[in-house]
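Think of the structure tokens as a kind of shorthand, similar to the way a musician reads notation: each symbol stands for something richer, in this case the local conformation of the backbone. In the example below we present two proteins back to back. Begin with the first one, reading the sequence and then the tokens, and try to describe in your own words what changes along the chain.
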Amino acid sequence: MFVNIAKVDNLTRGTAKLIRVEGLSIALFNADGAFYALQDPCPFDGASLSDGWITGSVVECRGDRARFFLPTGECLWQSERKNIRSFRVLADKDHVFVDLRQRSASEKSEYETATGLSPIAVTGGGVC
């Protein structure tokens, strides 16, 4: 069930915005022209991930500096990781659409495949 949630022109590269749709709070990201959507807020401190810092395909929470892999919502810090929900995203030249259905567990293990790194190998400060 894909839902139109934003206009492409309203989300410039390297930015994010908080979208509320059908009772969900979703952080929508434009990371170098690729669109990603994660549940919002951060599961650790409640800060909005849409206010976080985007570096490549990772968002860092401004509050506790927790880091999440944008394509999957995988938490990149701490052995007790709190992965967050990610949403499938499609975009045409004008609009961004998000699939509000739950992704399967097998789709949540893409970080190592995409980066060649294990989550604990990501460097930087903070906890997650």
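Once you have a description of the first chain, move to the second and do the same.
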Amino acid sequence: MLTNVHQKKRLQMVIGLVAGILFGFLLHKGGVTKYDVIISQLLLEDFTVVKIMLSAVITGMIGVHVLRSLGLAQLHPKPGSLGSTVVGGLIFGAGFGILGYCPGTVAGAVGNGYLDALAGGVTGMLLGAGLFAALYPKLDAAILNKGDFGTVTLPELLKVNPWVVVVPVAAALVGLLAALEAAGM
């Protein structure tokens, strides 16, 4: 079924555009395209961002594994390493802490017409991507490949059926969501 989609690049672009617009709309409706909400999350005063992200992780995790179980999708994990995780986390964290937006929320905020997101966010993403591209050859050899853990997934590492990991992790995340709501966070 989805093989047909893989062969049509324009259709993929249209699906990506529609999914991106829907994603931005949902971020907006959730309130996480607002600077004050994100800063309140960083100050541990408002857990709206965490609740939306946990909901997305649960939905995505279950959805991907249902599609995979039905033979409608395949997983293609990218290789990872401790070095690339640390560098990516530092870059993401610096931008997030300075501007108060992540790449998804900055796009949604630009869609809302927030000039700080347009001027700071888009400019910052372009400068950051350019700087990373310029430094990549030096970072790749020296840092990014340190602590390589390959393409292994948690179920593969544990040598279990993926649902043995998905179900308890989803249940734990739902429990965490319920606890945040019960605590009024």
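Compare your description with these statements about the second chain. The mean pLDDT is 87.
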